[in-house]
Predict the structure.
Amino acid sequence: MNYRQLGDTGLRVSEISFGTWAIGGSWGQKDDKESIRGLERAMEAGVNFFDTADVYGGGHAEELLAQATRGREDNIHIATKFCRAGDIHDPATYSEQSVRAYCENSLKRLRRERIDLYQIHCPPLAVLQDGQVFEVLRQLQQEGKIRHFGVSVETVEEGLFCLSVPGVKALQVIFNLFRQKPAEVLFPQAKQAGVGILARLPLASGLLTGKFTESSTFEADDHRSFNANGEQFNVGETFAGLPFDKGVALSRKLAWIAEGRGNMARASMRWILENPNVTCVIPGFKNVRQVEDNLGASGARPFSKEELARLRAFYEQEVHAFIRGAY
């Protein structure tokens, strides 16, 4: 496993880490025993960083992490998120009383005394500009309840604003072959500011595995069904903001990237890891097989300059115009 510095925090995290939305809920059927096995397999391979949130399965993902990492709290770093258990537009959600309660509840579920990275979970820009929530986070940091804090953002504008906020040490951003915009301005400025980048949804909700067809369907409790057009939250969180049929068609045009790299999933994450401003990629998983497959991205064949240019042109000419939602 290769490790990278998380901004200027002093933390070194595995370049392939894992997100836990899928094992918490909203991705169809899951098996807790298999989820635990997947977490254990990741740690055996050297993964030392996991991302979660208090709303993933109503806190269930945090509880699974607590179970899997018990006794390894000093070596396995956990990032979690807050605010979406409340009304993200209500200032009261970001009050000291509310944030402290969110934090304490996450600590209890995680069975930890301190959260390594505490992130605001895709709040509106107005909340970030108000600044109250950052004061609360600084207070929790002084008390030792959180080690560092950051923000999971939806747009480049939000990310750029966060870089101006003292104490923000990490940004979590949707970044994949279908969502290349953050690499243009945000990522270089984050690197200069000493802020780490966590690349989430690297496979565009599975589109970049190449396994879907236009006739593919998803369970009712899977966000790829209930949020396909942004019905519940930002459409960018599902299929990178692309209409499903269009995303499937575009993924077929990317099938060539798998040659010599195992498969499309590994190739897609390899492309992300080749960006020097990315700290880590955080794919999801629901079983050991998916964990092992994702781990293979580190050893996949690098892209040539010509291939990188081809992928950039593909995004600009065939993908960008079809992305929906805040970006």
In short: The CA atoms of residues 207 and 248 lie 6 Å apart. The chain has a mean pLDDT of 95.
